[in-house]
Amino acid sequence: MESKVLIYGKDGCPYTDQARSAYGNRAVYVDVKKDASGLQEMLRLSGGKRQVPVIVEGEKVTVGYGGT
User: Fold this and answer.
1) Is the pLDDT of residue 43 over 80?
2) What CATH number has the domain bearing residue 59?
3) Strand arrangement of the beta sheet that strand 5-9 belongs to
4) Closest by Cα among 55, 56, 44 to 18
5) Interior CA angle at 17 toward 8 and 28, to 5°?
6) 52 within 8 A of 16, measured Cβ to Cβ
7) Is 62 exposed, middle or buried (0-12, 13-18, 19+ CB in 10 A)?
8) Rounded CA separation 30/16 (Å)
9) Which of 13, 25, 50, 68 has the most Cβ atoms closer than 10 angstroms to its Cβ?
10) Which residue has the higher pLDDT, 60 or 3?
11) Residue 45 counted as domain residue
């Protein structure tokens, strides 16, 4: 069974859109423009970086998206 992936991003961001398409149903999407607690969690996970998307796969945190 594949593990769930969290994608912190924002609507209209092409990199967020690409990540969401690539991960499909495996991903849970958090829109950081609409979810203040999601934004705070994203900043904690990314070390304060305000770059989207932030992709969380288990213990692995990736800031930005360049393809899978």
Assistant:
1) yes
2) 3.40.30.10
3) 27-31, 5-9, 54-57, 60-63
4) 55
5) 40
6) yes
7) middle
8) 10
9) 13
10) 60
11) yes
Let me know: does 42 contact 32? Beta carbons within 8 Å.
yes
Question: Is 43 contained in some domain?
Answer: yes
In eight-state DSSP terms, residue 12 is T
Give the Cα separation of 26 and 34 in Å (integer): 21
Through-space distance between the first and last CA atoms of the chain, rounded to whole angstroms: 18
Contact (CB, 8 A) for 67 and 22: yes
Residue 29 lies in a domain: yes
DSSP-assigned beta bridge partners for residue 61: 56
Average pLDDT over residues 55-59: 95
Asked whether residue 38 is domain-assigned, the answer is: yes
Q: In the prediction, which pLDDT does 4 show?
A: 87
Structure tokens at 24: 């499909």
